[in-house]
Amino acid sequence: MADDDGVVAVIDKDGLDALVAVLAARGRTVIGPTVRDGAIVLAEISGGAELPYGWGVELEAGTYRLVAREDGAAFAHSAGPQSWKTFLHPPRVREWRADRTADGELVITPEATPSPSYAFLGVRPCDLRAIAVQDRVLTGGRHADPGYRGRRTGAFLVAVECTEPGATCFCVSMGTGPAVGPGFDLALTEVLDADGHRFLVRAGSGEGEAVLAELPSRVADTATRTAARDRVAEAADRMGRSMPLVDLQVLMRETLDAERWDDVTARCLTCGNCTMVCPTCFCTTAEDVTDLTGDHAERWRHWESCFDRDFTHLPTGPVRDSPRSRYRQWATHKLGTWYDQFGSSGCVGCGRCIVWCPVGIDITEEAHALNRERERGSSGEATG
Amino acid sequence: MTVVRHGFLGALTPAHRDRLLAFAHEASFPGGTRIFEEGGTADRFWIVRSGLVALDVHVPGRRAAVVETLGQGELLGWSWLFEPYRWHLGAQCRDDVTAYEFDAELVRVVYDEDPAFGLALTHCVAQVIARRLKATRTRLLDLYGPPGSGGGTP
Amino acid sequence: MTAPVPYRVVAHPADTPDTATIVLQPVRTALPPFTPGQFAMVYAFGVGDIPLSVSGIDGHRLTHTVRAVGAVSGALHGVRPGLTVGVRGPFGTGWELPEAAGRDLLVVAGGIGLAPLRPLVLAALAEPERYGRLNVLIGARAPGELLYPDEPWQAAARVLATVDRPDPAWTGEVGVVTTLIDRAAFDPPRTTAFICGPEPMIRATADDLVHRGVDPDRIRVSLERTMHCGTGHCGHCQLGPLLLCRDGPVVSWTRAEPLLMVREL
After folding, report:
1. pLDDT at res. B151
2. In this model, does residue A2 exceed pLDDT 60?
């Protein structure tokens, strides 16, 4: 990472406090990680003290546990159960209202409630990429989602580089981390050593620079810069998972009839947890509601999962009737056909789907197994 | 890419086609003629040259129920090839029909004399039956019908 | 998604037992122009909206043929002139008839599949010198379910129909629609085919045409899946790499065939 592009500084914990205050003073709703209900949960915060200092997480397939840390780090955790899509692409949104007048006319009013002006504090590099992926899906095509655009435009993003990857992380494999990529207003890297608990701050936009200028900060010294860079580089070597080193788009295309899908189906409950926690899953469904008079109707849109049996149906019935086809749809879309549809992978390597799967299905393990099955098939060996 | 020659005759080699046509004589039927009846002796068969022939089944309480129509180039009748050599459908001309007509018994005799010809002809007849079976099964699905019709719950 | 635009039902010209044809006119604002093969999301107040291919385009007026198979289509099936519905669109890819200039045209319609093909047929008939021979092959369940039976173009020389289940009064052909292909007049290497109907019918027809020498790139089929948004944001209409509201519903057979071969894709 070229760390001499743009403004760089160092702030302490009181600088982080000030950051929240400055953003709030600019009329922004500041969302950050907090400790709640045994997890790191994204919520509105009013001060730096609400950040999860001294909390880390223990992650594994089907396992998430908060663990107290002695070093008091604020960002030594990864991938909580939510992602920023909870705010940018909320679970339930009203899209428009329809009124039927006395003379039978239809008056349709688009939803015009102004979106909050958000500041997201603690956006992981994988999640920063996920936001970019959703940007492409929801605003990068011929038709843009006006609600998403309203919430997204002007959202202030404070990224935090990863120095403490979880056992289920594989951002390196997906090329999304642990160093932060473009798209942030400010990027923090937490440094905890003999010289103190501090954060290297880089500005990535004009507004980022302006906000940084309002914080109590000092010049970024070489020791802090080096420590920050080293911590992130070390994190890259401590990834818990990885994808096979093959073209995943091609792999997904060539293994549609693999036996491995039967194997994972035997375990998958089609509960859809993965789609809820995945930061790029975007699928929604329309819901029409009317009031008791019957003259007022509303169109709402809410999250829906491709694991739902009726997700894709024709008048004759569901198209993906079997759980096998639905797991295959999710995985092949995420890793493969997303490229065809939106020009990139849909997976950012955050590992949430592995953590929050109640039976611990691991998408990286499935990709490796599919790759092995494909290799066995092409080498002519008998498959099991 | 093989270009498909059309009609029953198109599926035979030129030599076999000529061999078969040696047994043909031209027939014509005015519109409305019933060419054969269900249960009758299958002693002839035809290749339609023009016009439309409707195949029907006798269902008590209904006028003859048409199950298929055949037009130009198509084989009319294959029951002559299999015992008990009886028609399982009736055939009625929708309009004026011309056809090549064949004496089934004579053709069956040639099978013993010329097995290669017999095999080729049987193969072509089998293809016709297979195609019509596939089409019939498709119609059973009632794909144009309301969802849920045609058997099999969604 | 953007909100629907009010359109008034101005005519309700035709009915078969389960389908209705409705003509819509903008109340105030008109949507951008539709081309044959594209679809609109049509909203029945308080019930919901469904994708409906345009089956007629006349200036700003849109014609849709609706088949009642659910709550929304049932509601739309029952609208009468004077009622207002909401419309969004145009969405999707069209038949792209102009690309078939100079070529024989083979239109094959199964059941309700004739509805999205009708504007294509009318457009081709309007400019006969631009195209080769036009053939329209129609398959329907029964004579009473043939769509647009009294329209003038149905009496044209190369419009052929067949039914699965004749009634006693039916004097036409009986059998699957692919049996009509032998009666069509077209030169396969110089033909563009347009097919719409139930998926097994599309597969059987396209396979037959490829076998006869029609280029799969020149066979255009209209595919169907659930659609909610029409704008590529809800994810329901995916078929492998395609978002049918955006990359379809009209797709070349070259693209469609491998996708339809994968069960439950």
Report:
1. 52
2. no
As a dihedral over the C-alpha atoms of residue C70, residue C72, residue C77, residue C80, rounded to 10 degrees, the angle is 160
Longest Cα–Cα distance of chain C, Å, equals 50
**Hey, which bits of chain C come out as E strands?**
5-16, 19-26, 39-44, 48-53, 56-58, 61-67, 84-91, 104-110, 134-140, 159-163, 173-174, 191-196, 219-222, 238-239, 242-243, 250-252
Pairing of strands C219-222, C191-196: parallel
Q: Residue C185, SS3?
A: coil
- Which of A109, A142, A319 shows the shortest C-beta gap to C225? A319
Cβ neighbours of B154 in A, within 8 Å: 316-318
Share above pLDDT 90 across residues of chain A, in percent, rounded to a whole number? 90
Helix, strand, or coil (residue A87): helix
- pTM of the model as a whole: 0.91
Q: Contact B144/C110 with Cβ under 8 angstroms?
A: yes
φ, ψ for residue A8, nearest 5 deg: -130, 140
Yes or no: say if C89 and C52 are a contact pair by the CB < 8 Å rule. Answer: no
Please tell me the distance from the alpha carbon of residue C185 to that of residue C181, in angstroms, as a whole number.
8
Provide the number of CB pairs (under 8 Å) joining chain B to chain C: 66
d(C-alpha B78, C-alpha B125), whole Å: 7
Residue C137 bridge partners (DSSP):
C108, C160
Q: How far does B140 lie from chain A, in Å, by closest CA? A: 15
Q: Is the pLDDT of residue C96 over 80?
A: yes
**Distance from CA of residue C237 to its chain's centroid?**
17
Give pLDDT, residue B2. Answer: 34
**CA–CA distance, A102 with A99 (Å, rounded to integer):** 10
